[in-house]
Amino acid sequence: MSKSRSLLPLKTLFISYHASNTILISFLPLYLQFKGLNGTEIGWVLAVESFASILAPPFWGYLSDKYKTVKKILFICVIGLLIGSTIFFQMNTLPTILLMGAIFYFFASPVGGLTDSFAQRRANELNVSFGSIRMWGSVGFAISSLIVGEVLARFGIQNMIWPYLIFGTMALCILFPLKDVTVESEPVNFKDIRKIVTNKPFLLFLFVIVFITITHRINDYFMALYITELGGSEELVGQAWFVGVIAEAAVFALARFWFKKYRSLIFIIVASIIYTVRWFLYGIAEDPMHIIGLQFLHGLTFGVFYTASFEYVTRLIPKTLQSTGHLVFFSVYFGLSGVIGSLVGGGIMDAFGGSALYFAMGCLTAFGTVLLILYHVLPYGKENTIRETE
Predict the structure, then answer these.
(1) 162 dihedral zone (left: phi>0; alpha: psi -120 to 50; beta)
(2) Max Cα separation, the chain?
(3) Taking the alpha carbons of 234, 155, 30, 134 in that order, is the dihedral positive or negative?
(4) Whole-structure pTM over 0.85, yes or no?
(5) Which positions, given as ranges, span the membrane (predicted)?
(6) Tens digit of pLDDT for each residue in 315-337?
(7) Cα separation of 213 and 141, whole Å?
C-alpha cells in the first residue's frame, strides 16, 4: 500500500475533527453571547474549557502510553465528546453551562493532542513530514469556518450544535478503518512520569512559550467578538478564519522544505516576532475587513510556531512517553494558556474594548520573545535529547 493511501484515514480524521473544533473556536463565544452571557462570563466558560485542557490531556496521554494504543483512547474521547456536546448545548444557565462544559471538555480537549501525537508517530514510521499530515487539519478548519459561518449567518447561531455533531460523527466513523500506531516499548508505569517532570529543558521551554501561547488563545476566544465589535457578522468571522487557516495549511504543507533550513528554535523565535507585529496591527484595525486582510499572518505565526515547537519538544521526550509528553505540551499550549487568556482577556475586553486587548497581547508577546531569545543563547536552549535516559 502506498504512503498516501495508508495515510488517507488519518488525513480524513484531521479534516473531520478540526472541522468540528473550528465551530467551537470560531463561534462558541458568539453562541454564549446569544445565550445572554457577557464578556466576563464568556471568559469563565472558556476558562473551564482551558482548565479541562490542562488536566485531561496528560491523563489520556498517560493511558495511551500505558496501554500502547492511541486509537482506542481516541474512540473513548470522541464518543464522550459527542454525548457531552449534546447535553452541553442544551444548557441555558451559567452554572449548568459551566458544569456540563467541564464534562464535555474532559473528553474533547485531548483529541487534538492525541491526533497530533498519532500523526507524529506515523510520520516517523513512514519517513514523511509531520506538517504534510497536520495540514489536513487546517483544510478541515478552513472548510468548516467558511461553510458554517454562512450557515449560521442564515439560520442563526443557536443552531451551531448540528454542524458540530455532523463533523464529530464523521470523526468517529473514520476511526474504524484507522490503523493504530506501533509502540515498540514496554507499557509505562506511573513512576516513569518523573522523566518528564524532572526534564528541565522541557519544563523551561514550556514556561517560556506560555507568554506567546496565552495571546494565541486570547485571539482564538475573542477575535469573533472583536470582529462584531468592529461591525462584522458571523459570515465575516467565518471568512477571517478561512483566510487564516488556508495560510496555516500552506505552511504545514511546505514544512518539509522550509523546516530543514534552520534549527527549530530559530523558527520559533521568528514566529514570535511576527506574532508581536500581528497583534499590534490588529489593535489599530478600524474595520473588520482589516482583520480579515491580516489573517494571512496566522499561518506565519501559529503554523510555524506550533510545527517547530511540536518538533522541538519531541526531541526532549523519551520515546516511551511520547503521548504523555505531547499532551503535556498540548495542555500547556491550549490549556494553561487558555485559562489565563480567557479570564484576563474577557475582563480587558469588557473594561477597555478589543483594541486595548490586542495592544496588551502585543506587549506580552514581545516579552515572551525576549525570553525565547535568552532561552536559545543559554545552555538550556541547546537542542539536545534526553532519550538516552529512558
Answers:
(1) alpha
(2) 58
(3) negative
(4) no
(5) 12-32, 44-61, 73-91, 97-114, 135-155, 161-181, 202-219, 239-258, 265-285, 291-313, 325-344, 356-378
(6) 888 777 777 788 788 888 888 89
(7) 19
Q: How many angstroms separate the CA atoms of 344 and 43, rounded? A: 8
Q: Which three cell numbers stand for residue 375?
A: 532561552
- The CA-based dihedral angle spanning residues 293, 158, 156, 81, taken in that order and rounded to the nearest 10 degrees: 60
Residue 156 falls in which region: left (phi positive, over 0), alpha (psi -120 to 50) or beta: left
pLDDT one-digit tens code per residue, 134-147: 889 988 988 888 78
Place of cell 513530514: 129
Please report which residue ranges of the chain form alpha helices under DSSP H. 3-6, 8-34, 39-66, 71-88, 94-126, 130-155, 161-175, 194-197, 200-229, 234-253, 255-258, 264-283, 288-294, 297-298, 304-316, 322-330, 337-352, 354-377
Give yes or no for a contact between 208 and 372, defined as CB atoms under 8 angstroms apart. Answer: yes
Predicted local confidence at residue 162, as pLDDT: 94
C-alpha 42/C-alpha 32 separation (Å) is: 6
Residue 202 to residues 199, 315, 340, 370, Cα–Cα distance (Å): 5, 9, 21, 18
- Rounded to 5°, the CA angle 111-143-11 comes to 50
The total domain count for the chain is 1
Q: Whole domain around residue 276: which residue ranges?
A: 3-389
Q: Which three cell numbers stand for residue 170?
A: 464523521
Closest CA to 270 of 305, 246, 299: 305
Reported confidence tier of residue 170, pLDDT bands at 50, 70, 90: very high
Which residue in the block uniquely carries the three cell numbers 447561531?
A: 157
Sign, CA torsion 196/301/111/82: positive
Cell output for 197 = 517532570
